[in-house]
Amino acid sequence: MNPRVGSGDRLFACAITLACLTAKPAGAQTVMPAVEEPPFERYVLGNGLTVVLQHDPRQPTIAGVVAYRVGARDDPPGYRGLAHLVEHLTFRGSRHLADGASFAALEAVGARRNAFTAPDFTAYIAEFPARHLPRFLWIESERMAFTLEAMNEERFEIEQKVVLNEMLQRRNPGTAIREAIHQTTYPELHVYRQIADRDHDVERLELDHARWFFQRHYRPDNAMLVLVGNLEHTSARALIERYFGPLRAVGKRPGRVAAPAISFGGSQRMTFSAPLPHSELQVRWSVPCREVRCAAQLDLLRVLLTGHGSALAAYTKESTRAADMSIGFLENHAEVRIAAQLGSDADVQRVLGLIDRELATLAAGKADELTLRMAKLAFATTQLYAQESQLARAIAFAVEPERSAPARVKAALALGVQDMAEAARTLLPRDRRLVVVIERADRADFQGELDDSDGELRPQSSELQR
Q1: Residue-level pLDDT at 447
Q2: What pLDDT shows up at residue 15?
């Protein structure tokens, strides 16, 4: 097949089927399916705002995202939670919108909307009927241009209490463990070392801090606008110019503290005791990873290590306990975690041995060709299905343009057994990882310690008391 994308066709109109990945006529090479990037337009307004437009007429809606290049990593030292608090404040009104009116104006036309603060960015998202594109653009341009003057003490104090309440709801041993791991694995002063909100920091924030932060970061040359859906490029461009074109960024765009990729400086082990429903084993890597090929290798490793027929899948079935692998992509590296829940009689070393044997098989280039093709099928199907969501595509354009789903699928389909052997050896090695054992305890307090550490990521203290 030579699939093509055209008006009215399905996105990624390629025949990714079990037959095309596994069938191999005698004397013929296996033919992998083609994956075509859907057409999109990317340009920059005169004020520095980056715009991405993608036409998709299959649904009567448009997904819109305005993402600012500022997140939890940009909180100044001692002011953790400031980016999150400012995100909340932007919904408290502006020059032409009353308090909470931006939500109401979108909900009135049946839109879905939300916002979130991530380590690297802050995003405002919505999906709405296509005819209401002007309303969405007006609300987001209003947020960018006229929010600052509406910030006052009363609204600030309300949102400060809301953020503190959210933090209280999220406070549990699991979050304490994640933060302890972060503080151990990231060097002093690294931007990701402390990206969780801290209640005593949020409590000491003042209105002037929020005003300064907003004025510094919420500007057109520090933002990206993405529209995906039933839009016409010419009219969309005219509307964007109308609502965003007059906005001006004052002064120089703010610089940003570098976020260098890190990797563990040796094999490290941590143990925790916490009042959790079950004990758990985690094996963690910090993987320098910016290129799409690296991202695709990690994606396929996840399927191979946890998919049908793998040792971890067999463990899950045998013990009725879950085992999975997660990948969190940050600016220049990925946080990789394999986690297995443990029963009361589970042998930690046995479960760790299952993971090690599976990785050793892959690293030795002994992966079965058919298993690899099935893994590609599973990954491609999952990714392309997710791309059916216009909102998911819009967010991906805004936050991960270099590692978009189509690019990762293309890269994954091109990988062979030896490519995966290289990935297992270099990305998930035994001598550059962190093994975490979380022991279930009935007592209410939480504690943990670093049992062993070598290399450049030795923490300042081995004691990790909450």
Answers
A1: 63
A2: 36
Nearest CA to 236 out of 43, 29, 437 is that of 43
Three-class SS state of 399? helix
The more confidently predicted of residues 346 and 88 is 88
CB 304 within 8 A of CB 362: yes
Q: What are phi and psi of 371, to 5 degrees?
A: -60, -40
Report the SS3 class of residue 128.
strand
Of the candidates 294, 288, 283, which has an alpha carbon nearest to the alpha carbon of residue 263?
A: 288
pLDDT for position 450: 56
Residue 342, beta-bridge partner list = 279
Q: What is the pLDDT of residues 9-37, one digit of tens each?
A: 333 333 334 334 444 444 444 455 555 66
**Cβ atoms within 10 Å, residue 350:** 10
Residue 433 tokens, joined:
């990882």
Residue 242 is encoded by which pair of tokens?
A: 């109308």
Q: Is domain 268-452 given the CATH code 3.30.830.10 in the classification? A: yes
C-alpha to C-alpha distance for 327 and 338, rounded to whole angstroms: 9
Token duo for residue 367: 């992966």
Higher pLDDT, 131 or 457: 131
Residues of the chain with CATH 3.30.830.10: 45-244, 268-452
- Look up the CATH superfamily of 45-244: Metalloenzyme, LuxS/M16 peptidase-like (3.30.830.10)
Virtual torsion, Cα 304, 309, 315, 319, nearest 10 deg: 140
48: amino acid identity, one letter: G
Using CA atoms of 162, 164, 167, 171 in order, give the dihedral in degrees to the nearest 10: -130
Q: Which long-range contacts (C-beta less than 8 Å, at least 24 apart) are formed by 320-323? A: 321/278, 321/346
